[in-house]
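Tokens for chain A. Residues wanted.
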């Protein structure tokens, strides 16, 4: 926070991490006269965007990646690859998902309007809840960098090295999406 002439300006970098409930209390408690949120990753979903507007304020300036390409940003190709989990990863995902969804589903039935923070606090009080939180964390780690993503990343890195020598003005960005039967929508 910065104070100038009695005003407090709160600057929140990576503001997209707020609006989902987990970290919102920090902004709710901040005593700032003005707030500036910065992000290159706008929130997904109308609910998170509306909550973020409540916490920080409305969007006042926005640029799409396409607006920057060719001038401020090298031209690029965005490639999305949908990659399957290995049999071992699928088995682990199924097991972890069962551990998490049982506890989370039971909590949601009892408290349908509760937030992720409410669930986390509730779950932390029991051994079953702590196992569910640990399973959720392990699922996130599993899907974040699967074997297929590692292979694709190695391929992409070698492709970009060869592109640098032939055409330095174009780069390829890749977005990896693991196919999983368990949607991780919380948190």
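Reply:
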């Amino acid at each position: 926070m910065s104070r100038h002439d009695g005003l407090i300006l709160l600057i929140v970098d990576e503001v997209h991490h707020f609006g989902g409930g987990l970290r919102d209390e920090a902004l709710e408690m901040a005593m700032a006269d003005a707030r500036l949120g910065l992000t290159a990753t706008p929130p997904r979903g109308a609910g998170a965007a509306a909550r973020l507007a409540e916490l920080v304020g409305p969007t006042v300036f926005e640029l799409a990646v396409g607006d920057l390409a060719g001038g401020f940003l090298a031209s690029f190709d965005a490639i999305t690859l949908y990659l399957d989990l290995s049999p071992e990863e699928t088995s682990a995902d199924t097991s972890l998902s069962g551990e998490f969804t049982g506890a989370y589903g039971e909590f949601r039935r009892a408290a349908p309007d509760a937030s992720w923070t409410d669930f986390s606090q509730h779950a932390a009080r029991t051994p079953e809840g702590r196992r569910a939180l640990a399973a959720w964390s392990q699922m996130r780690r599993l899907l974040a960098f699967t074997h297929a993503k590692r292979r694709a990343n190695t391929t992409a890195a070698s492709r970009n090295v060869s592109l640098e020598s032939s055409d330095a003005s174009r780069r390829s960005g890749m977005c990896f999406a693991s196919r999983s039967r368990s949607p991780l929508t919380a948190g």
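Residues 2-62 form one domain. Residues 98 and 146 are 19 Å apart (CA to CA).
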